[in-house]
Amino acid sequence: MSSPPDTASMLGTVPFFSGLDAKKRKSLTSEGKELAYKAGDFIVREGAMGVGFYLILDGKAEVRKGDRILATLGRGQFFGEMSLIDELPRSADVVAVSPTKCWALTSWAFAGLVKTNPEMALHMLKEMVKRIRAAQSSPTS
Ligand code: CMP
C-alpha distances in angstroms, 138 versus 37, 132, 133? Predict the structure, then answer.
């Protein structure tokens, strides 16, 4: 899969990839695909089986469960990892709330990425723990 030349440098500015050297980032870039969404587009649907992992390159997306907004994610943040890790259906909807550009990886490329880049896996775990803590401290409705 070919990528525009600026994707690797764009990914380099995102904390998620900051532990990778330029060579690794470049080879990784070619494994993913850029996808564009309009405001209101569902990127991920609750209950569907997960086939992709997404990193937001630009724009904003809401994580929604029913009528609750669990989080608003922006540039440099990721989603879609849960379903790929436990192989269960998507836990929530993720909806673009402005024109949004994502970098998406297939589930098998994601598995390879996590296995071969412990610094990235650790970054992801830290973010997941942060989300669990935020969910635990938010009021239940
Ligand atoms: P997944 O279950 O594959 O698809 C929906 C995604 O929404 C999920 O992976 C996470 O990436 C994200 N998500 C689910 N719950 C939360 C939350 N409480 N805060 C932030 N992101 C979440």
Answer: 29, 10, 9
